[in-house]
Every structure is written in structure tokens, then in C-alpha cells.
Amino acid sequence: MSNSASAPYDSQTDNPAQQSFEIRAFEAPLGAEVMGLALDKPISSTDFARIHRAHLDHHVLVFRDQRITPEQQVAFSRRFKPLQIHVLHQFALTGNPEVLIVSNIVENGKPIGLGDAGHFWHSDLSYKEKPSLGSLLHAQELPSEGGDTLFANMHLAWDTLPSPLRKAVEERRAEHTYLARYAELQARSPWRPNLSAEQIAQVKPVEHPIVRTHPETGRKALFVSEHFTTRIVGLPEDESRALLDELFAHSVLPVHQYRHRWQPHDLVFWDNRSLMHLAAGTPDNLRRKLYRTTIEGDTPF
Ligand code: SIN
Prior knowledge:
Layout: E1 22-25, E2 32-35, H1 45-58, E3 60-63, H2 70-78, E4 92-93, E5 96-103, E6 106-107, E7 110-111, E8 132-141, E9 149-153, H3 154-159, H4 163-169, E10 173-176, H5 182-188, H6 197-202, E11 206-209, E12 211-213, E13 220-222, E14 229-232, H7 237-251, E15 257-260, E16 267-271, E17 275-279, E18 289-296
The structure holds succinic acid.
């Protein structure tokens, strides 16, 4: 980590002044906009507590117009919990392994970032024993069209799941595997390098409950995704496949979704314990670059 990483936040202990900012809920099943807060300035513990509460309530916070450095993004993200380093270390920002470059840009014949991150619905790092608490994505360069990110509310998905389906899955666990669709993605894009034995060892399949309890709010959420969930433990393959397909279809119904249309310098912070997300896609001829930090969460229960 670079030494300047905690620059504006070192003064937290000095109890910095509160900032005057507004939190406005979107007219959507999730999400709120934070207006007037500058993340390049020290954040007082009172302001931090307000942000934390809003994150739990709305699941996505959109901080507008943030002129922050990657080091400031890392420092703000770290106030929640330690960060996770993505297995595709090829796409880490030079000198800052905790920042993943999400980008479709190819320079000198080499991709500068992970261009197909979020191609399928998923919750970040659900394939780890400790999946991510939340992720922060900061816009660096945006296309003139496309490039939206969709979020789906997995609490609503659970609350509205038809009763026979709830009964069929509520006590069950499912397997999550980073490699589930890797070959498929590799076949269609330049962004999936061959993995080393060490990288493969970092992403062994794990099992998690299909319905998880949010560790901070106690709310239940559906926790399976089309990207990483491969099977329901203890069921025959055909039964498992049929149930997973029904869960996937229900979880991302339009009534559960918020579509984020990026504005310059947006920093979007979402809760991976409450949501799934999807990158809607960018036309090939347009450039898109964002920096992602990923906060470690708890073992799901
Ligand atoms: C991701 O899945 O982290 C990337 C989402 C996006 O690029 O919109």
C-alpha cells in the first residue's frame, strides 16, 4: 500500500468538523444519493455513522462528484473493514493492489482492466469463505452511451418468493465457484487470462446458505447468483438446476431493480449482503474505466 493511503483520514482522531450533506432515497426498490459530502475531506465519526446507517437502509449509496484519489478511496473503504484483493491481480492498479481496474480499454494490445466484470448477475466474491461486505466503484472515464450498472434487492427477492419455492430452499446450501463460467467468458473476451495454479488454489468452491441473514440488520436475503452458484447441495442435478433457474429468474425481476446511470466522478457503494449487480454493457468502441475497492464481509449464516 502506498504511504499516502491514509492522508486525509489520519486526522480522524482530531474529530474533524461535521459536513452538511443530504441523503435522498431514489424512487426505486433500493438506493439513495448522497449530496454535498466531500470524501476527500476528513469524515467525522458522526458523519461516518450516518453514512453507515444509510448504507444499511438503502443498500446502494451514490456519492456524487467525488474528486478523490485511489488512496482516498482505499482509506474511506477501509473504515468499514479490511479490503480484499481480487484474484485477477493482473488488473490491480499499479502500486495499489486493493484497487481493481474495471475497464474495457485495451492499450498496446493489452487490456488495462477487467472489461467483463459483472457480465452476469452476482454478489462480489460470493465464491470466498468470507464474501464481500460491500464494494465501491469510482468512475474515472465514462462512455457517452451505455455502461449502466443494475442492482437487484435480494431482501425483496426473498420476501416475495412464492411459498413452495421458499420451503424448497430455506434450509439448504448452495455451492459457489469462481470458475463456474470462467471458460465461457474466456472464449468471448480478452479479459480472462489463464489462471496460475496459485490463483486456482485461491478460489476453491465454497458452500453458503441459500437464504442468508444480514449480519447487521437481521434481514433475510436470497444469496444465489447466475454467475457463481453451480448447484444446490444434496439435490439431484436436474432438480438443483430447475430450482436455481427459478430463483435466478425471480431474484432479478424488474420490480426488484435500480438502474444506475453513471455521472462523472460518481462513487457508488453497494452492500453485497443485500444485493446482486450486473454491468449492462458498453459499446465496444467506447471507453469505460472505474476503480473498485472490495470490503471483506463475514461468513454467511
Ligand atoms: C462489477 O461487477 O464489479 C462491475 C460492475 C460494472 O462495471 O458496472
